Amino acid sequence: MIDFRHFWKAVFLFGALTATSSGVAVAKEPLAKTLFGAQQLPAAIAPKSYGFYSKGCFAGGVGMAADGPNWQGMRLSRNRHWGHPELVRTVEQLSRDAARDGWRGLLLGDMSQPRGGPMLTGHASHQIGLDADIWFMPMPDRRLSYDEREQISAVSLLRRNSLYVDDRKWTPAHEAVLRRAASYGNVERILVHPGIKKKLCDTVRGDRGWLSKVRPFWGHDSHFHMRIGCPAGSPGCKGQSAPPRGDGCDDSLAWWFTEEPWRPATGPAKPKARDVMTLANLPAECRAVLEAPAPVSADAVTVDSSGAIPITTPPVSARAFAPLPAVDIPLPSARPGN
Ligand SMILES: [Zn+2]
After folding, report:
1. Has residue 250 been placed in a domain?
2. What is the sign of the dihedral through the CA atoms of 174, 110, 230 and 312?
3. In angstroms, what is the span from residue 57 Cα to ligand 1's centroid?
4. Per-residue pLDDT tens digits for 49-89
5. CB 138 within 8 A of CB 108
6. Is residue 171 part of a domain?
7. Is residue 11 in some structural domain?
8. Phi, psi of 302 (to 5 degrees)
9. What is the pTM of this model?
10. Cα(196) to centroid of ligand 1, in Å?
11. Cα separations (Å) of 256 from 47, 76, 194, 252?
């Protein structure tokens, strides 16, 4: 039997239905995930992140090309290799630095949708162009095919049915790539499985200050999640509180090795935020982000295979992000000669 108390609570809380004066629910606001999930290209306006990592959107997105000198994009069909230019710059820099550290290249998982926002599937966060998932597998020594990038799975670093890292899979290069990512001033958090955090706690020698940024979280045993802070020029971006000082190798980590975090949830299932959020739940600017013009092409705003970012420093070049004229006048390409 339907429990109407919960039904009406849902209606009033989430505004999924709008009531007429007669009180009859008739129209349904489109879900934000539907609107943002349909975007093929970023908003060609100045780069800004709006809202919070799990409730927002962003403008002025830049794409990571499918192939770079030190990276390969995975799951290309999802169209989620977009980010605020500062995130793209950081991922690109990590790909270069990590290669020097002995990590052949990055396999890039999801970043954001072209204009961010909630996604049709997966991820509660990744909405404001400041999050990137990076596989715990270095790039192979060849270019993967499109189909391989759809089908190959990232391999867990854990032992089977265990919360602990498999020592046959863990290498010094894994520590090095995490250490490198944590070394960047704008990287605020790196999410990894608690077992991986524990491995670092047990083995990292020398400076351990960077471990404070490496936070244990569910999942994240086959990829890590790199999150940068709110970029300059994004006053509408809500940051998160700094992680506690110290290496985090304490009671807060020990909790993950108790039964509590893994206990199945009880009580009525709550809907996921992405399944109820409408545009009204997001920052007001997200409407303008949806309505903003698109760039001339994806290539014009994509970091190309030479690793060159199609922008200089913020503010982004007028060429890449000039609003499109109303008529179809060819604009200069952001990448001359291409
Ligand atoms: Zn992630």
Report:
1. yes
2. positive
3. 16
4. 999 999 999 999 999 999 999 999 999 999 999 999 999 99
5. no
6. yes
7. no
8. -120, 135
9. 0.83
10. 15
11. 37, 33, 6, 7
Contact at 8 Å (CB) between 60 and 41? Answer: no
Is the residue at 237 inside a domain?
Answer: yes
CATH number, domain with residue 43: 3.30.1380.10
What spacing in Å lies between the alpha carbon of 132 and ligand 1's midpoint? 6
Give CA–CA dist 47/231, Å, rounded: 9
For residue 216, the one-letter residue type is P
Give which of 32, 207, 177, 327 is closest to 196, Cα–Cα: 177
Whole-number Å distance, alpha carbon 135 to ligand 1 midpoint, is 10
As a whole number of angstroms, the distance between CA 235 and CA 241 comes to: 16
Note down the domain range covering 85. 31-321
Domain count across the chain: 1
Per-residue pLDDT of 126-172, as tens digits, reads 999 999 999 999 999 999 999 999 999 999 999 999 999 999 999 99
